[in-house]
Amino acid sequence: MLELLNEHRCFEGVQRYYRHDSREIGLPMRFSAYLPPQAADGPVPVLFYLAGLTCTEETFAIKAGAQRLAAQHGLMLVAPDTSPRGAGVPGEDDAWDFGTGAGFYLDATEAPWRRHYRMESYVAGELYELAGRELPGDPARMGIFGHSMGGHGALTLALRHPGRYVSVSAFAPIAAPMRCPWGQKAFAGYLGQDRQAWQAHDAAALMSAAGEAPFPGGILIDQGLADQFLAEQLYPEAFEAACQAVGQPLTLRRHEGYDHGYFFISTFMQDHLAFHASQLKAR
Known about the structure:
- By secondary structure, the protein is of the alpha/beta class.
- It has helices spanning 59-63, 67-73, 119-133, 149-160, 181-191, 195-199, 203-209, 230-234, 236-246, 262-280; strands spanning 3-10, 13-21, 28-35, 44-50, 76-80, 137-147, 168-171, 219-224, 250-255.
- The protein has a nine-stranded mixed β-sheet with strand order 1-2-3-5-4-6-7-8-9, sandwiched between helices.
- Helix 7 (203-209) runs parallel beside helix 9 (236-246).
C-alpha cells in the first residue's frame, strides 16, 4: 500500500511523494511522482527517471524543471530513491560512491549487500508494476531516462528488459562502468570479482552483444564537454562505438561549456521529454 507523504499542485497537475514497504528491497522505499493534468481523464504514458550518486527521490522533482514540460506532453514522471536506506550493512554510509545513495540499479549478488540492494528488481519490476496498478500509468507506454549513475541504470535496464521500455535516453551516463573507478568499485562490491558478471550490467558491453538495434526509434544522450567526470568515469565514446557496431541509431550530443550538474540537465530537459513523448504517444 502506498503512503502519500505530501503533494503539491504544479502546472495544473500534482507533484507527490510516496513511501511504501518494498517486497524486493525488504525495507520502506520512497519515490516521487508527477501526475500531469491529463491523468484526471485516464491512464497516461510514464517516464521513469533514475538519479545519480548521492541523490534521492526528491532531486529530480526539485532541480530538473520537468513538470511544466510533462504537463504539456501529458507524461507521468516517476523517480525512485537511489538505494535502500537503513539496510544496516556495515560500511554502507562510509563512502558517497558506494552503499547508501549508490545502488547502481542492479541486484547485488555478494553478501551482505544482496539481501536489500536489489534496485534492478525494484525499479524494473516492482515500481514498474506499481506505476500502472496504483498510479494512473499506462503499462503499454513506459520509458526510462536518467543521469550519471542513473543514466547507466536507464541504459542497462532498457537493454536487459527488452520490450519493457518503449524509449530510453540519458544525461552524462556512466556508459562503460567496467572501465571506470565508480563502476569497478560498485561492481566488485555488489557483484564480486567475476568480470563476466560485470558485463551484464555494462551498457557498452550489453549493446555490443545485441544482435540488432534494440531501439529502432533511437537513443538520445546529452554530454557536457566541461563535465569534470567525462574523461575518467563516463566513456560515452565506448557506447557510441557499440551502437555503431550493431546499427543502433544514437544521437549523442556533445555540448561545449556544460558540466555534470542539474543546470546542464535542466537546459536540455525539454528535448528529452519531447523525444520520449513522440515515441510513447505514438503507441
